[in-house]
Amino acid sequence: MRAGEELPPLEIEITRTLIVAGAVASRDYQDVHHDAELARLKGSPDIFMNILTTNGLVGRYITDHFGPRAVLRKVAIRLGAPNYPGDTMVLTGRIEEADGGTATVRVLGTNGIGRHVTGTVVVSVAVPGTTEAGA
């Protein structure tokens, strides 16, 4: 891993099931994440993904790239355009800094509306023969 390295993009289909399952799994029972009619009454065209689901997908993107020895040390994200059912989110990343077994990755997730998520992830990768990431 080196600074400037681009991670391959990951396309994620945004389905109703993904949105609702993510909300339920994270115990976020706000109606805008599972009830389309109530979401519309509140001004949204449909249900939309919650931040905890996005956070999990960003984490998955990083650990899928860096492998089973990857440990997320810090995830800092900001949401923008909502993820609605029927859209696709494309996650991309670029290593901004790399020092030994630790990297800071800038992550961007876009959908048909625009930028859904931006942020940085600090990840450590265990060196074979050690018990701790970044050791």
What are its keywords?
135 residues; alpha+beta; 3 helices; 5 strands; 24% helix
Write a short abstract of this structure.
This protein has 135 residues and is of the alpha+beta class. Helix content is 24%, strand content 37%.
Structure characterization notes:
- The chain is of the alpha+beta class and 135 residues long.
- The chain is 24% helix and 37% strand.
- It contains three helices and five strands.
- It has helices at residues 16-25, 36-41, 51-66, and strands spanning 6-13, 70-79, 88-99, 102-110, 115-125.
- It has a five-stranded antiparallel β-sheet with strand order 1-3-4-5-2, with helices on one face.
- The protein is elongated.
- The mean pLDDT is 94.
Name the helicity range. 10-25%
- State the end-to-end CA separation: 15 Å
Contiguous helical run count: 3
Largest sheet: 5 strands, antiparallel
Our estimate of the beta-strand percent is: 35-45%
Shape: elongated
Mean pLDDT: 94
Please trace the helix and strand order, writing H or E for each element: EHHHEEEE
Q: How are the strands of the largest sheet arranged? A: 1-3-4-5-2
Number of strands: 5
Supply the helix-strand structural class: alpha+beta
Quaternary status of these chains? single chain
Nearest-angstrom radius of gyration?
16 Å
In the predicted model, the low-confidence regions spanning at least 5 consecutive residues are none
